[in-house]
């Protein structure tokens, strides 16, 4: 399921729309994930506050979204471009890769909520393909 | 038996009460066929499905999306026994339609996303949790008669 030129263009085009609401997207995605999939809280036990919209959640949401933008910049070679991030997740964070899918689903829900007109089925397809490739690249160094 | 809190029942009933079946059903099925193109395998007799635009414009797909969404009504009316409510439908999907049960999950995901687009911020994390729990029970029930 390689990204075609059309997919990449659709992803980049939609990302530029996302940039105006980055913080909102990041915070809402992370907040939502922690509520809808409570098992994901296990990775954030060291935070003082896991409530939706709390300070640690909002700050970390920005980190997640910036990671997605970084991946979009390296869309032509995700595997190599995301090596450092993969090492981080594999050796330090040790996040079970099943959670990448969970995060992606929450992000797609938030994008639909915030961009009901722009997040068409065609854009959804391209973004989903892209994020699946990002997840694969993140899992690269796991074993 | 699945346990439902009062809050979950209220949320799920609330979503259905405000649902435009024709609009949401059609959108959900179209999105599923476009985002997961392998699901097209079950729709060979539905006419022109050659590209996203054709799928969206196809009246048979729109009607079928509505039908599928109304299929959820029985779960809504029988929330305390969704498992047995779908015995016949599960057999139909397994024996006659031969649908890979993973497709139920894909369609459920698309439905959640379409409802999120419709409701915006009203689709709170709590609502998403309750709604997805409901759909996962339906999906599980539909997969039960596969052998």
Keywords for this entry:
heterodimer; A: about 140 residues; mainly alpha; 7 helices; about 70% helix; globular; B: about 150 residues; 9 helices
Q: Which value, in Å, is the CA radius of gyration of chain A? A: 15 Å
For the record, give the distance between the C-alpha atoms at the N and C termini of chain B, rounded to a whole number. Answer: 22 Å
Succession of helices and strands of chain A: HHHHHHH
Structural class of chain A: mainly alpha
Q: What is the residue-mean pLDDT of chain A, rounded to a whole number?
A: 96
Low-pLDDT sequence parts of chain A: none
**Residue share in helix of chain B:** 55-70%
Helix/sheet category of chain B = mainly alpha
Distance from first to last alpha carbon of chain A: 22 Å
Shape of chain B: globular
Radius of gyration computed on alpha carbons of chain B = 15 Å
Classify the oligomer: heterodimer
**Mean of residue pLDDT values of chain B:** 96
Can you walk through the features of this model?
The complex is a heterodimer of chains A (about 140) and B (about 150). In chain A, α1 crosses α7, α2 (about 20-35) crosses α3 and α6 runs antiparallel to α7. Chain A has helices at about 5-20, 20-35, 55-75, 80, 85-95, 100-115, 120-140. The mean pLDDT of chain A is about 95. Chain A is mainly alpha-helical and about 140 residues long. Chain B is mainly alpha-helical. Chain B is built from nine helices and no strands. Chain B has helices at about 5-15, 20-35, 50-55, 60-70, 75, 80-85, 85-95, 100-120, 125-140. The longest helix of chain B is centred in the C-terminal third of the chain and has 18 residues, at about 100-120. The two termini of chain B are about 20 Å apart. The model of chain B has no long low-confidence stretch (mean pLDDT about 95). The chains are: A mainly alpha (about 140), B mainly alpha (about 150). Chains A and B meet through α2, α6 and α7 of A and α2, α8 and α9 of B.
